[in-house]
Specification:
The chain is an alpha/beta fold. It has a domain of 166 residues: TIM Barrel (Alpha-Beta Barrel), CATH 3.20.20. It contains nine helices and nine strands. Strands 3, 4, 5, 8 and 9 form a five-stranded parallel beta sheet that branches. The longest helix has 19 residues. The chain is globular.
Amino acid sequence: MRARRPVRAFLGGALVLMILSGCAPSVDPIERLGKKAAQKVHPSRGPHEEKYRDWGLAAPVTRAPRPVRSPGHGAGPAGPGLPPALDHVSTHDKVVFLTYGADAEKDPRFIDMVRELRLPVSVFLADSAVGPGYARAARLRAAGAGIENLTLDHAELRGRSYAEQRAEICGQQERLRSRLGLHPRLLRPPFGAYDHTTLQVAADCGLTALILWRRMPGRDPESYEKGAPLHPGDILRPHVQPHEEESRPSASLATETARLLRRIQASGFTVGRLEDYL
């Protein structure tokens, strides 16, 4: 027993010297694996990448570009202190924005798509078109969608009085606040129609921008779905187009969105969150 004590003391002292000199065995798990083994270690892929493949889409290789806060280009004149009307955002990022109407909350598969792909979309809701109790709208919000204002009754605003437009715009602001606890910043005028009174009412109701969508003069409003080139900052409005033959059902909004996403990916673009850029 006495002979072992000097040995233990020697080993203990040697260990102290190794620690002090930085020669102690590494506790880093990667270093323990060695260089060759460490080269085989890769960060795990997020579950959403597999979901992209499930929807027939290429897995995203990079995250969406960092938002560059810059003023958007208006589709029409505004005025001092009035919110701009935007059909695209000024940015050099190869990013486009997906915006939807009330039909988005009616398609359960679209809600699943937003959640599974972590898809940054903006959905403009009209009270008259929202399902009972705003339950599906709440599901959209929980899935990660931005919820914005589309007025109470989805009626054209242009040409109506200040009081009428205020009832439509501020009324929906209050409804979204009471139902979902939201204070939207963006307004989509129904059918893209607005006038100077609309801009004034929007400002008075606390909204910061009117959101339109890209249109091509002399062509279909959604011609980007038919091969027209995309541009950085384009605001797009995917929608379900009725089939020419009444006997054949139209594609779902989720299907149309997947088709547009393939088009976006093939063009080297990604989808950004509109609210982050405005």
